[in-house]
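Bench log. Compound arrived from synthesis this morning; before running ITC I wanted a structural hypothesis for how shikimate-3-phosphate sits in the protein. Inputs:
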Amino acid sequence: MNDSNIILIGPMGAGKSSIGRRLAQKLLLPFKDTDQEIRRGAGVDIGFIFDKEGESGFRERETRVLRELAKGPVAVIATGGGVVLREENRRLLKDSGTVIYLETSVQWQLARTQAGKHRPLLEGVDAEQRLTALLSEREPLYLECANIIVNTDERRVASVTDLVLAHLRDAATAGNSS
Ligand code: S3P
């Protein structure tokens, strides 16, 4: 079941990092997070990269990190909400593991993005409008990449993780019997 990456995609506030961390513990795999790798590589936070290099500079860094993570070793990988925007990234995601789309309504995204974490795309704008616009642009791209879809509305990290594990087990069983 764990011979390729488990990759979490979905919008800001879907719970990708928290669920990814727990999933990795359960699967005894390393956990990687593209945003964290970008921060580590740059030595500064994501807001600073957006300020200095614009979104396009950030997207370049995101693709470079994804290419590196796709090479292995096998891990649970949480991605940033905009990772699906580039065609190259979508190909990398699909080719390097099982892609899980953590589907989340704008209302739940809003509730989860209020607290903490610096998110430049939500700064100085109406967050509900921005999240709605981003979701309508990106939802088809998340769906295009997804092997498994799990809704995270009203669910805690532990329960979403259990659902993802159940889907992975089902997928492995279906794969073995065919
Ligand atoms: C972004 C989402 C963020 C981060 C960056 C851009 C996006 O990650 O990559 O601020 O384009 O939706 P999270 O989805 O983990 O918040």
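What the model suggests: Residues 12, 16, 35, 46, 80-82, 119-121 surround shikimate-3-phosphate (CB under 6 Å). The chain has a mean pLDDT of 94.
ITC booked for Thursday regardless.
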